[in-house]
Amino acid sequence: MTDYRQTARRVGRVAVQVIAALFLTSVAWVVIYRWVSPPATWLMLDRRAHAPVGKGYYGIQENDRRIRYSFLSLEDVSPQLPLALVAAEDQRFLVHHGFDGDALMKAAKSNMSGKKQLRGGSTISQQVAKNVFLWHGRSYVRKAAEAYFTLLIELLWNKRRIMEMYLNVAEMGDCIFGAEAASQRYFHKSASQLNPQEAALLAGVLPNPLRFRASNPGPQARAKQRRVLRRMRQLRGSVYVQELMDNK
């Protein structure tokens, strides 16, 4: 019995040490990315290794799997793009603390109603957490890790950095990540030169950039673009962007 208790204590101490080490490592990782741009994400590495497979995917590059990715500061991106991303993805971005209960409830009601197209309730903060720190896939473990990293970045970063990270690492096409790579690929210009219509189109295709086309948009993409443009006007345009830029 004594040996059993001693073994249990040793196992308990090791478990505590492992948990503490993982916690400190994750905090250090998030703190570093507060100031340093990620060299790559898990999704980038996955896309580099394997071409995505899915019905209706557009522009898949079977042979050339090079990743297009160039990290820009928020000042070097047209202010129309962060405005469009908030309008399309998370209109309460500046006021929530990582999770939007209203959006989650609306998504749950929509999905339970039996609509064909499932609706998500993830905030921009949650999407940054999974895009930057987590592997590609779906599981309860990954969802729990997403919530954990969402809390960390909301605590250790400001909204300005969260938006800057989001518009730089979001997948915007096969092997295309971030605003600069997408702008060069679809509009043959820098992300600093995007106009409201182009920004709204990029933001509109983000829920599934492998199906919705920014380079040659179909009716669905155009409809989403128009909705995003309306919401951009409702968000007070440049006034909202200035609030985001001042969030330091």
Query: Which CATH top level class of the largest domain fits?
Result: Mainly Alpha
Helix content: 55-70%
Strand content: under 5%
Q: What does the average pLDDT come to?
A: 86
What's the β-strand tally? 3
Say which CATH homologous superfamily of the largest domain is assigned.
Biosynthetic peptidoglycan transglycosylase-like
Supply the CATH architecture of the largest domain: Orthogonal Bundle
Globular, elongated, flat, extended or rod-shaped: what is the shape?
Answer: globular
Number of domains: 2
Low-confidence stretches: none
Helix-strand sequence? HHEHHHHHEEHHHH
Structural class: mainly alpha
The radius of gyration computed from the alpha-carbon positions, rounded to a whole number of angstroms, is 20 Å
- How are strands sequenced across the largest beta sheet? 1-3-2
